[in-house]
From TrEMBL:
Residue ranges of domain Peptidase M20 dimerisation in the record: 220-361
Taxonomy, superkingdom: Bacteria
Family annotation (Pfam families): M20_dimer, Peptidase_M20
SUPFAM superfamilies to which the protein is assigned, alphabetical: Bacterial exopeptidase dimerisation domain, Zn-dependent exopeptidases
Assigned keywords, A-Z: Hydrolase, Metal-binding, Protease, Signal, Zinc
UniProt record, GO biological process: proteolysis
Signal peptide extent: 1-22
GO MF, any single term: peptidase activity
InterPro entries for the chain: Bact_exopeptidase_dim_dom, Pept_M20A, Peptidase_M20, Peptidase_M20_dimer
Family the entry assigns: Belongs to the peptidase M20A family.
Entry keyword annotation includes Transcription regulation: no
Name of protein: Peptidase M20
Database matches in PANTHER family: N-FATTY-ACYL-AMINO ACID SYNTHASE/HYDROLASE PM20D1, N-FATTY-ACYL-AMINO ACID SYNTHASE_HYDROLASE PM20D1
């Protein structure tokens, strides 16, 4: 992993270091387009399977860009299975410079109308929020980035570095298009993934508390545990019982704690985020862990908290189990799925071997069950050019807001770029209250108060990274 020295890191991440700025400027045409395009995109059911309208949604983005000055041959929509991916190119004046990629996805997770208060694919504006599937993950952000680029072109901006806007079509499921796009764009200088990071608002005042950028993510992986036996009649038990053997393995894995780990991204996160933790005991544990990852007392506190247990190392947990074939027969087969979120720096095979060692059950077979739907990727470095541009953009859009990094326990398209050696940073402009986090859930929403500062943010960030 590449990372800079601590003094420079702290100087760049210093909360409150940015000077107060004037109120954000207004861009009425772009502001109207953000809401209009968001609503059009939400109205299309871009869910994997029959009736998938991802390609139609991407056509809406293409139409907006072409109307904004892109040539039709600069905007590509490529079908893949029942979905599609999107690559739009704004050529820079210096072809020797590698491009900046702005990355997102257009697909959403399933939403059953009968479960929602409002139809998930009918956008509704109510009490300052836009409701609908994809509002926060991530059609609003897609509309924001698209409208920002159109606004830059409207202003006559001419990038020196080529700008590529891309949307994958199956990030929420197989990530097949995500892999394809990352392979095609592996020549990029940097990726700004607008599906990661973002800001937190105070629950009482709705004022910005802090903004985080995602510099790393844990690797998602599933492992199949399997025990097979000859079986037989249940009236004649055998010493080796597949269900009992599997249960022994799962108990050992469930009680195991992988070694604690830290990297520059998580160290900076714990140091800075501790300031906003209202529980003094937790805040102290965060600081102690940042100072010494082997502090057992701090680790015990963090591991007992759902918000932090996934941030201190690899986690593996049994999620599904199946066994036996008849009530009156000895089980011939018992299986379980163990889901792991692997700390950056470890391979999927390394963790598979470790699970076998932890279980220590003769005859147990552990198989990687994820296939090519995930990949191990290192953390992105704390690049001064990105940090300066991101901090300046937040200072303009949300004056005085502290900025620091975070590592995601979930999965995003960034991993495919990082695996190709391309630095990728989750850097969404959207702020929300924790109580408004309904991504993947019922009644998904996003605050429309994000539009004006979000445009200011993207105009600043993209300009700084491409001028």
């Amino acid at each position: 992993m590449r990372f800079m020295t601590v003094p420079l890191t702290l100087a760049l991440l210093g909360a409150g270091a940015a000077p107060l700025a004037a109120a954000p400027a207004s861009y009425p045409q772009a502001e109207a387009q953000v809401l209009d395009l968001s609503k059009q995109l939400i109205a299309l059911r871009t869910v994997r399977g029959e009736g998938n309208k991802t390609a139609e949604a991407l056509e809406l983005v293409k139409a907006a860009l072409v109307a904004g000055g892109w040539r039709t041959d600069q905007v590509e929509i490529t079908p893949v299975d029942d979905t599609a991916y999107f690559i739009a190119t704004w050529p820079g004046s210096d072809p020797k410079l590698k491009p900046l990629v702005i990355s997102g996805h257009m697909d959403v997770v399933e939403a059953k109308p009968s479960d929602w208060e409002r139809d998930p694919f009918t956008p509704v504006v109510e009490n300052g929020y836009l409701f609908g599937r994809g509002a926060s993950d991530m059609k609003f952000d897609a509309a924001m980035a698209t409208s920002s680029l159109i606004e830059l072109r409207r202003q006559g901006y001419k990038p020196k570095r080529t700008i590529i806007l891309q949307f994958s079509g199956d990030e929420e499921t197989t990530m097949k298009t995500s892999r394809i796009v990352a392979e095609r764009l592996k020549h990029a200088e940097m990726v700004i993934n607008i599906d990661g990071g973002g800001g937190t608002l105070d629950e009482a005042t709705a004022k910005p508390l802090y903004w985080t950028w995602q510099g790393a993510e844990k690797t998602y992986n599933d492992y199949l545990l399997e025990v097979t036996n000859p079986g037989g009649h249940s009236s004649a038990p055998r010493p080796d019982n597949a269900i009992v053997q599997l249960a022994t393995a799962l108990e050992r894995i469930g009680s195991y704690r992988f070694p604690a780990e830290i990297n520059p991204v998580t160290k900076a996160y714990f140091e800075q985020a501790a300031r906003f933790e209202t529980d003094a005991k937790l805040a102290g544990a965060m600081r102690a862990f940042a100072a010494n990852p082997q502090d057992e007392a701090a680790l015990a506190i963090l591991r007992a908290n759902q918000a932090y247990v996934g941030k201190v190392g690899t986690t593996c947990v049994p999620t599904m189990v199946s066994g036996g074939h008849a009530q009156n027969a000895l089980p011939q087969r018992a299986t379980a799925n163990v889901n792991c979120r692997i700390f950056p720096g470890h391979s999927r095979e390394e963790i598979r071997v470790e699970l076998e060692r932890i279980a220590a059950v003769p005859g147990l077979k552990v198989t990687d069950a994820t296939g090519d739907e995930s990949v191990a990727a290192p953390a992105s470095p704390m690049r001064p050019d990105f940090l300066r541009a991101a901090e300046r953009a937040i200072a303009k859009a949300r004056p005085g807001t502290p900025v620091f990094p975070m590592q995601s326990s979930g999965a995003t398209d960034s991993m495919w770029f990082r695996a190709q050696g391309v630095d990728s940073y989750g850097a969404s402009a959207t702020f929300s209250k924790d109580s408004d986090d309904y991504a993947h859930g019922l009644n998904e929403r996003v605050a429309l108060s994000n539009i004006k500062p979000g445009l200011v943010y993207y105009l600043s960030l993209v300009t700084d990274l491409t001028k």
